[in-house]
Specification:
five-stranded mixed β-sheet, two-stranded parallel ribbon, 13 strands, alpha+beta
């Protein structure tokens, strides 16, 4: 194909993919999607028509097809680079000194050189890790661009000034690297803006910086009225960056706009596959590498499907795709006219994916403990409220299609490593909006050992002295938070899977809330089945209730924290939690599970309603920061200076340096 035709070809192809992928009924349109993608390939070259076929039963054909697709000649399509500004530091020296103090910016360290977990690996897996951490470091820059198009120019500005001895720039750079961006929120819900006069863009890096919500809606309405359904569908999918095109908007697939970075990542994954000692992991590496090279959701789906089967592999690598940050897409549910037009056009609204990367070593012993819950997943599915009104990812009978691993981390890169008031303890992926679940794929839970093991006994006791009834100190167990998280992540695989996007900006709040309440609701059953002892049951309930209190009222955009306030408010109203005048908590243990079951039923009811107004009413009823919350918050702030955290990755840094040295 001539070079001057490539841009048009890819726009046409991704528009068709976007059209197909946004059909309301994904399952019934799989064959249409495959056929259309094959036709697009035929336009390019009759020899490149081996797109994914028979993905269920013939992995050899999948690999052959993806290898062929990956060989297509392309040029990088770059988004217009953000205009370079004369940046200025926003925080005072005093504020920077405070925020970079080790007690305020708390460091969590990943695996170090010489770690026992690493030394036990086979040589081939050690070599593979070098390439995996290099892939993760490449993804860091992609995340920065998706977060804010000024992130990288500002980082370069900070590095230049710091190299010249500017201490304020050095401290600002430390905060930038910790929160992975110019703007982030801390544990007390303060927005930290590192560059003067540059607040967080409304559309992050997914959309033009000068685009507002109202204009976004109006442009989509105009495009739909002009019959441009395909283009709108592509704008509203998970994997596109949106740019201006005159008075319209245009979407570029991630593989197009980040063609160079994705290509380098894919090369590293191919090299990791060559040395990996595990054939399943190597196959996944090849599939994921090819998914980075082609603008096709099906390639991602095939890689996701393989990843979700990985249980007995020595290494862990994930490109995480979570959609918490796209407020433009979630705002559409509040525009009745646009929502109706999209529904009539058969276009489903998907929030954009932020990209992260996890690299680690699977801990076999602690993974075995995780797997104990797997036998109870069908029973948990049967206990879900209104379960006769929807289809769940986990069926009450048969294979649950759920794997789970506990991982010693070398690195958390990009979105999942951005320390913005907190960092993730575990993830359940792929999410319900991903195509792999429609082609028979399952889900996978990955737990982060280094993140949860960072608390010292001294810090725990300080917290208990500050906020918990002394008579219940013995019932608080930091490990119980991990047990609770296991229930939380598995509940993500339960409940309604369709139509939740119609809840708009409340979708993530309700889903995270549902996962919490499922975890608590199932505790009694799991205790009866012998997974937990009666003492562990009490520890889970007391630890959950204690840890739900926050240092400050969160913003509505902080889904994980909003749901904590909602639950605390409900538990107090139900008499499951009491707060005395001194801000000390007492947990009425026998009332916690019944209260959780009520909230779980309400959360599922809201999801089934598919009504943003119902969701808004429900959240507003319980998202109330009252005197009880404030009293406990003051006690928490009195014993903890922490405002944010920083992740150090010494082993990953060493391996990446060794790989670079070898390449030279």
């Amino acid at each position: 194909m001539a070079k001057n035709n490539i841009h048009g070809y890819y726009n046409n192809k991704t528009a068709q993919i976007g059209k197909d992928f946004n059909k309301l009924d994904i399952q019934t349109n799989l064959n249409v999607r495959k056929t259309n993608f094959q036709k697009a390939q035929n336009v390019n070259n009759t020899e490149n028509n081996t797109a994914v076929q028979n993905t269920e039963n013939n992995p050899e054909k999948v690999m052959a097809g993806l290898d062929s697709l990956a060989s297509i000649n392309r040029v990088a399509i770059n988004r217009p680079e953000a205009k370079k500004e004369d940046f200025a530091l926003n925080l005072s020296t005093e504020e920077l000194q405070k925020r970079t103090d080790p007690d305020v910016l708390v460091t969590t360290t990943m695996l170090k050189p010489g770690a026992e977990q690493y030394e036990k690996l086979a040589d081939g897996d050690k070599e593979a890790l070098k390439h995996l951490v290099k892939a993760g470091k490449i993804l860091e820059n992609i995340h920065l661009k998706l977060d804010n198009e000024n992130n990288i120019p500002f980082k370069n500005f900070l590095e230049e000034k710091a190299a010249k001895g500017d201490k304020d720039a050095e401290m600002s750079l430390k905060l930038f690297n910790a929160q992975k961006g110019m703007n982030a929120i801390d544990t007390e819900s303060n927005m930290v803006e590192l560059a003067k006069g540059m607040p967080e863009p409304e559309g992050k890096g997914f959309y033009p910086q000068d685009l507002g919500t109202e204009e976004f809606h109006n442009i989509l309405i105009n495009m739909l009225e002009n019959g441009e359904k395909d283009e709108v569908a592509q704008i509203l999918n998970q994997r596109s960056v949106v740019v201006r095109n005159g008075d319209k908007l245009e979407a570029l697939d991630y593989t197009e706009i980040y063609h160079e970075e994705f290509g380098k990542m894919a090369d590293e994954l191919d090299k990791a596959a060559e040395t990996s000692t595990n054939s399943d992991f190597a196959e996944y590496m090849k599939l994921q590498a090819n998914a980075l090279r082609v603008a096709d959701p099906m390639a991602d789906a095939v890689a996701d499907k393989k990843w979700a089967t990985l249980q007995d592999t020595p290494l862990e690598f994930t490109i995480t795709r979570e959609s918490y940050d796209d407020t433009f897409s979630t705002s559409i549910s509040e525009n009745p006219k646009l929502s109706k037009m999209l529904e009539d056009a058969g276009i489903r609204v998907y929030a954009k994916d932020s990209l992260g990367c996890r690299v680690g070593i699977v801990n076999k012993e602690s993974t075995d403990d995780l797997l104990k819950i797997k036998q109870f997943l069908p029973k948990m599915a049967a206990m879900m409220p209104y379960n006769d009104q929807y289809e769940q990812n986990i069926k009450p009978e048969g294979d649950s299609k759920q794997t789970m691993v506990d991982v010693d981390l070398l690195m958390l890169a990009g979105d999942c490593g951005a320390y913005r008031g907190g960092v993730t303890l575990a993830e359940n992926l792929p999410n319900d909006d991903k195509l792999s679940l429609s082609i028979g794929g399952g889900r996978r839970n990955v737990y982060h050992r280094q993140i949860r093991l960072g608390t010292t006994p001294e810090k725990v006791q300080q917290k208990l002295d500050a906020v918990l009834d002394p008579a219940q100190h013995k019932l608080y167990n930091p490990e119980a938070d991990h047990w609770f998280t296991i229930g939380h992540e598995n509940t993500h695989s339960l409940g309604p899977t369709q139509g939740r996007e119609k809840l708009g900006k409340y979708e993530a709040i309700i889903e995270e809330h549902k996962a919490d309440m499922g975890s608590i609701s199932f505790v009694d059953m799991l205790t009866e089945e012998g997974m937990y002892t009666p003492e562990q049951r009490e520890q889970i309930l007391v630890s959950y209730a204690t840890d739900n209190f926050l240092k400050a009222k969160p913003e509505l955009s902080q889904a994980h924290r909003v749901r904590s306030v909602m639950q605390t408010q409900f538990m107090i109203r139900e008499g499951a939690i009491e707060v005395n005048d001194e801000g000390k908590i007492h947990v009425n243990i026998d009332k916690v599970v019944p209260a959780a079951k009520k909230m779980l039923a309400e959360a599922v009811r809201i999801q089934l309603s598919r009504d943003v107004n119902e969701a808004e009413k429900y959240v507003n009823e319980y998202f109330v920061w009252d005197e009880n919350c404030e009293k406990v918050a003051e006690n928490l702030k009195s014993i903890s200076k922490k405002l944010n955290g920083n992740i150090e990755t010494p082993l990953a840094d060493q391996l990446a340096a060794e790989a670079d040295e070898k390449a030279e």
